[in-house]
Amino acid sequence: MGRNSHRGNQCIQSGAVNFRNIKNIPDDPSSLAPGTVWGVYEDSQGSLWVGTDVGAGGNLLTQFDAETRKVKRFQNDPNNQSTLLPGSLRAFAEDEAGQFWVAGEGGLSFFDRKTGKVTRYTRERTAKNRGRNGIFDLEPVVGDRNDLWVGSFGGLDRFNTRTKVFTRIPLSQDTTVFEPVVFVMLQDAEATLWLVPVKDCSILISPGKVAIESAYDPRDTTKISDNSIYSIVERKSEPGILWLAMANGAGLNRFDTKTGIATHLTKKEGLPSNTLYGILEDDNGTLWISTNDGISNYDPDTKQFRNYGLDDGLMALEFDQNAFTKGASGVFYFGNGIGVTAFEPKYLSTNSIPPQVVISDFKLFNKAVKVGPDSPLKEPLSKNSNITLNYDQNEISIDFVALHFANPGKNKYSYKLEGFDKYWIDADNKRSATYTNLSPGDYTFNVKAANADGVWNEKEHLFNLPYCRPGIKPGGLFVICRLVRCLRFCV
Q1: In this structure, are 387 and 414 located in the same domain?
Q2: Domain match, 52 and 73 both
Q3: Neighbouring-strand partners of residue 430
Q4: How far apart are CA 64 and CA 377, in angstroms?
Q5: Rounded-to-integer distance, Cα 180 and Cα 158, Å
Q6: Do both 271 and 365 map to the same domain?
Q7: Does a structural domain hold residue 259?
Q8: Phi and psi dihedrals of 66, rounded to 5?
Q9: Hey, what's the torsion of the CAs at 216, 220, 221, 223, to 10 degrees?
Q10: Least confident interval from 27-31, 127-131, 157-161
């Protein structure tokens, strides 16, 4: 697919590493409808559905029809009850009979894909039903896809698609308070339904019972790190382990449902942002996470992150709640403020070539040292592996760079000054090392780098010039390197 190509009439822009960006083109009705994406779904027929919100201008639903390759837009008409309900469209589902259901801020609708007509199903506006038409999530019941779990501002319902009847599932024994909000639902490998967030706890629905399981305590670091969660997933290889995308800057949590212990991952461990929105699992068991600063891929087995941004081909960095899905075709979709980014993880290109590192500058007291007969640098850095300094020239800076220009801003570095550093220093993308008050002695500076895909150049290359060794006067009582420092560069 070319960098700007068309599938049917829709414009799809391909990114640097096989990201496809679906976006609105002004005055082009065959493109995605304008607005912020709040819901996205690929149905069993291969069509893509995207709900967008243009604020006061209304909410629209765009269909990219897989069969006809045409683009259709649908929206609410206040004078026509056969059109979509007003409000943002967040959730989609198909039942056992293949019927298509659309839910959002205004309630639940059956959408006839052949005619484009809608049949609306909403709760009666009473105090008891307060918030139950404001739907966030919609999931077919495992084992009985004729029923749908409906999570809303008003709690949890079970909707029968044959009888068209809602059944309220009480989540609180106290009838004097409103039901807790249900933003996210997950049915795990044992058909247990997990609901989050719900007032500082998770609620477990299993056959025949409703049990409240405490999962959040701000005083306990072994609990989940916040009570607001935007997404939840269970890896196929880890039954009973839930991965939680936390709101409010609380990062990624690994929650063990058997022990109740949560492990917290943040920017410190490699996330691009601590505010997360969606999590999807690929066929290799790695997690793809939409954030406030791009898309992140995390491998729980190796504990490695690979982050993707604008330089990788994304059209925006900030993604949205609810706007993520894995299609039956294997395509992942993540929505943002201007469109949808689509990709198949197995086709994302990676760069396996490790970068070569060179020393780019050497400074004394923060001033660059020039080559000259009276300078510590007798030859250019590219030819020089040794530098001899006077005893009082004890503040140095060494600049380095990786000769790898595919997304160079994400190259990472690690360095070590032998004779001073006990361990390798993780410099992230910083390309300079500074040392002050060095004692007289013999030092070797080593530096290595990794490209944007985390491939490290582990091989050290030694410049082919004599190693500066300290001289010793007869009797071994006077060491010349008390007066000089000898540096050797290894990359």
Answers
A1: yes
A2: yes
A3: none
A4: 64
A5: 16
A6: no
A7: yes
A8: -70, -30
A9: -30
A10: 127-131
Check whether residue 429 and residue 300 sit in a common domain: no
What phi and psi values does residue 405 have, to the nearest 5 degrees? -105, 10
With cut-offs at 50, 70 and 90, classify the pLDDT of residue 282: very high
The answer to whether the CB of 222 falls within 8 A of the CB of 214 is: no
Question: What distances in angstroms separate CA 11 from CA 43, 62, 67, 146, 356, one per listed residue?
Answer: 20, 13, 17, 36, 38
Q: 67: closest CA among 48, 46, 53, 86?
A: 46
Last residue of a domain, one of 327, 347, 367: 347
Its domain, for residue 369, covers: 357-490
- In this structure, are 148 and 40 located in the same domain? yes
CA distance 70 to 47: 10
CATH number at residue 242: 2.130.10.10
Local confidence band at 382 (pLDDT 50, 70, 90 cut-offs): confident
Q: What digits encode the pLDDT tens for the residues 140-158? A: 998 899 999 999 999 899 9
Residue reference for tokens 């395509």? 331
Residue identified by tokens 């993880």 is: 345
> For 429-451, what is each residue's pLDDT tens digit?
898 999 998 888 888 888 888 87
**Could you give the count of Cα atoms lying within 13 Å of 292 in the half-sphere of its Cβ?**
15
Residue 366, C-beta contacts closer than 8 angstroms, at least 6 positions apart: 395, 397
Q: How far is CA 428 from CA 266, 414, 421, in A?
A: 15, 7, 17
What global pTM score does this model have? 0.76
Mean pLDDT for the chain overall = 83
Question: What is the rounded (10 degree) CA torsion for 8, 10, 11, 14?
Answer: -70
Residue 227 resides in a domain: yes
Pairing type for strands 304-308 and 319-326 reads: unpaired
| 290 and 146 within one domain | yes
Alpha carbon of residue 135 to chain centroid = 25
Q: Work out how many domains the chain is built from and give that number.
A: 2
> What 3-state class would DSSP assign to 454?
coil
At 133, phi and psi to the nearest 5?
A: -90, -10
